[in-house]
Write a structure and sequence with these properties.
The structure holds 2 protein chains of 2 kinds. Helix content of chain A is 37%, strand content 11%. By secondary structure, chain A is α+β, with helices and mostly antiparallel strands. In chain A, a hairpin with a 2-residue loop joins β6 and β7. In chain A, α2 packs across α3. Chain B has a 6-stranded mixed beta sheet. In chain B, strands 2-8-7-4 form a 4-stranded antiparallel beta sheet, with no helix packed on it. Chain B has a 4-stranded parallel beta sheet with strand order 11-10-9-12, sandwiched between helices. In chain B, β15 and β16 form a beta hairpin. Chain B starts with 21 loop residues before the first strand and ends with a helix.
Chain lengths: 296, 443
């Protein structure tokens, strides 16, 4: 009885020892030498795996950085400049200073501005609805309001406003990963510079129709009149296919275009309220007209 | 009685307008003629604003291999050429013509006399079909002259004329078969000559016994044309299902029907071919059924292409107080209209007016794995699985599950007890998968 226990213990120990020796040599033979920097870089990265950098995840991005040995064209939008300087420190490189970005919804077709004309009761995804028809307001470019972007956002930075029916970007949470840009079947979202003190100016419309049909569906559509192009002193606004587009790299945030826009399609965000302008011209005109009337 | 084997449903037929003769609608005052009312590339406009055009004059020329000519359906002046919303609400290039008194272009025979002798060669027939802009009038609007050109290495041995009209409510083909039976048969004979086949089968569902009798009697005078009654089952009017029902042949996955030696054309197309070849008359009018429980006077109209649908509804008694949805086409495959100002196009077979109560969707609940959708799918697919794959964005698996074979008949959606929007997701998936496949070919 005792013997058999002893035999089993010895036999198993022998097998164990033998396997250990084999495994040791195998491990030596097939050893994978990984750059320790990959681990260090991956640790610094936010770990959100959002894909905003263009790679499959933070680990893949770290591998790419270490492999490339160069930071040009590589940027983690979530971590921003802070993370990239830390990564640069690990790699002994110089980080490029990148202007922080944010997602911007370029449609203001709220229930009030673009009233509902068609009732839609199909599946609540923008992708399907976009394939099917032009949208509840009739605008073939505007937001469908079914929230594919909200579903795509990993950072809770988007929600649908029930009153307007439009998604809202939460500025503090948005990391400019670009998921919503890809999710929107109408390409309404755009990544733009976050701007100093969060100040941004953009054309809040992507309707390429001519003025009259665009205005028919939505009160605040860009009608392509070109007034803003003339007003801009920095050559930042381009008119293409009846639609104005403000180049955020050239825009100096002077707000001249906002004043010119006849349909309020150009939005300004987080600016202090304007000073009330004295309106001498208007008063003068008024006096002229009254004097004319009295003359008659 | 013949029918296809796997799948299919039998929705209530509701052929309300089956006994209403076709009435010719008054000429519209304004027509909206879209340049993309056929499958394929939009046509090139060859008229300018302010031009005077006659009825039947060429407005837009076919601009590619799969494209079709478009002709003016009225006499008048081109008022505008601009983007105008089509049935989906998206805008398409449209020629808007203010109509005046009717005047046909030269060379068109507008007399009601039936021309029975076919004195044209194969090439001449195809040329006339092409020039007169004939497209498939069953709904897919595939240019007919391309169907007639059998690809090299393939051989057609049978022409099938589709008089099934399996969609509930619609009766335009039914009325056409009764009123223009002989013309349809002459059209069939012309198509047979163009294809160089000696046999043609006309398939008609058994709920149109009068049409079957009428055509069978007429067909005795024609060589090689036979009329077949088919069991009533949706979607028998689908090309692949009809081939299966009539001949037992099966179209391989991803291939065209000509692979089995069959060419399928609609009865409406056969009539249009008769007019195009024998009378040199371009395709500028078609029969449209205005029907539904919310239609005050269900009717069949002969309408000029480009007439706004609102005019048809007005002629059919106006708008019902409880109108819920207006659908272009039948209830199974038709598309809800976003505006009544949408014009009739070559593919409009009917306008269906539904009551508010009928249009409500059932509440969507979870899939209970009853497999009803699988049992009714005429293509042998698994709709529940495809829906899941599309929701999870697994397009590769969806492609492997043959999502592109779906004919979008809607039987799965119709039969689902949980009210799941199966077809909606499959359609979305089809567009995604075909996009992926197209891009793959480029690389």
């Amino acid at each position: 009885m005792n013997n058999s226990i002893l035999f089993a213990v010895i036999a198993l120990s022998a097998i164990g020892a033998l396997s250990a020796i084999i495994l040791y040599f195998v491990a030596q033979k097939f050893k994978v030498i990984e750059d320790p920097n990959i681990d260090l870089v991956a640790e610094v990265l936010p770990g959100a795996n959002c894909g905003g950098c263009g790679f499959a995840g933070c680990r893949a991005f770290a591998e790419k950085i270490v492999k490339a040995g160069d930071l040009s064209g590589l940027n983690c939008p979530v971590g921003g400049n802070n993370v990239m300087t830390e990564v640069a420190k690990i790699m002994g490189l110089q980080a490029e200073e990148k202007e922080p970005m944010i997602a911007v919804l370029r449609c203001n077709g709220s229930r009030e501005n673009a009233p509902i004309k068609i009732k839609y009761d199909g599946p609540a995804t923008c992708a399907f609805s976009h394939n099917l028809y032009s949208g509840e307001s009739g605008c073939p470019f505007g937001c469908l309001g079914l929230g594919d972007c909200v579903v795509s956002c990993n950072f809770d930075a988007l929600y649908l406003d029930e009153k307007t029916g439009l998604p809202v970007v939460v500025a503090d949470k948005c990391v400019a990963c670009g998921a919503c840009v890809k999710a929107c079947p109408r390409h309404i979202f755009e990544l733009r510079f976050k701007g100093k003190k969060d100040r941004r100016i953009f054309v809040c419309c992507i309707n390429e129709e001519k003025g009259a049909p665009a205005k028919k569906n939505c009160a605040v559509a860009c009608i392509g009149c070109g007034k803003c192009v003339k007003a801009c002193a920095y050559d930042a606004i381009e008119l293409k296919n009846n639609l104005a587009y403000i180049d955020f790299e050239k825009c100096k945030l002077c707000r001249k275009c906002v004043e010119e826009c006849p349909t309020n399609a150009i939005h300004e965000l987080n600016f202090p309220p304007r000073k009330e302008k004295p309106a001498p011209v208007e008063i003068a005109q008024a006096t002229i007209s009254t004097s004319e009337q009295t003359a008659k | 009685m013949k029918t296809f084997k796997s799948g299919g449903v039998h929705p209530p037929e509701n052929k309300l307008s089956a006994n209403v003769p076709i009435t010719v609608l008054d000429l519209p005052k304004k027509v909206y003629i879209s340049v993309s009312q056929h499958l394929g590339v939009p046509s090139n406009i060859i008229v300018k604003r302010g031009d005077d055009v006659k009825t039947g004059q060429l407005l837009a020329k076919s601009s590619g291999f799969i494209s079709a000519n478009i002709h003016s359906s009225v006499t008048g002046t081109v008022a505008k050429i601009e983007e105008f919303p089509d049935q989906s609400g998206y805008k398409r290039m449209t020629i808007i013509i203010d109509a005046k008194e009717e005047e046909w272009i030269d060379g068109v025979d507008t007399s009601p006399e039936i021309l029975r002798n076919i004195d044209f060669s194969k090439e001449e027939i195809i040329k006339r079909i092409n020039e007169n802009g004939v497209v498939g009038l069953g709904g897919a609007t595939f240019p007919t002259h391309i169907k007639m050109m059998v690809p090299e290495g393939k051989r057609a041995d049978l022409l099938i004329i589709n008089g099934v009209e399996c969609e509930p409510y619609l009766t335009s083909d039914h009325r056409l078969m009764i009123e223009k039976g002989e013309e349809i048969l002459i059209g069939t004979a012309i198509l047979m000559k163009a294809l160089a086949v000696s046999k043609a089968m006309i398939g008609i569902e058994n709920n149109k016994t009068d049409a079957i009798e009428h055509l069978s009697k007429l067909a005795e005078k024609f060589n090689g044309i036979s009329v077949h009654a088919l069991k009533v089952k949706y979607p028998q009017g689908g090309e692949k299902q009809l081939i299966k029902a009539l001949t037992g042949r099966e179209v391989p996955s991803g291939k065209l029907p000509v692979e089995t030696g069959c060419v399928v054309n609609n009865v409406g197309t056969a009539f249009a071919v008769y007019e195009a070849v024998q009378k040199n008359k371009p395709l500028i009018e078609r029969v449209v059924t205005v029907t539904g429980k919310a239609a005050i006077k269900p009717s069949n109209f002969k309408v000029r292409i480009g007439t706004p649908i609102s005019e048809l509804i007005e002629k059919a008694g106006g708008i019902h107080e409880n109108l819920g949805k207006v659908i272009s086409g039948g209830p199974m495959m038709g598309k809800a209209l976003s505006s009544l100002e949408v014009p009739v196009v070559k593919g409009t077979s009917g306008v269906l007016l539904m009551l508010q109560d009928e249009t409500n969707r059932i509440k969507i609940s979870n899939c209970i794995r009853c497999a009803k959708c699988i049992s009714v799918c005429p293509m042998g697919l698994e709709p529940y699985l495809l829906e899941k794959l599309i929701i999870n964005e697994d397009y590769e698996k969806a492609e492997a599950q043959k999502i592109l074979d779906c004919i979008e008949c809607g039987s799965c959606h119709y039969t689902c007890p949980a009210g799941r929007p199966l077809l909606d997701y499959i359609r979305l998936g089809k567009s995604r998968v075909s996009y992926i496949v197209r891009n793959r070919k480029k690389i």
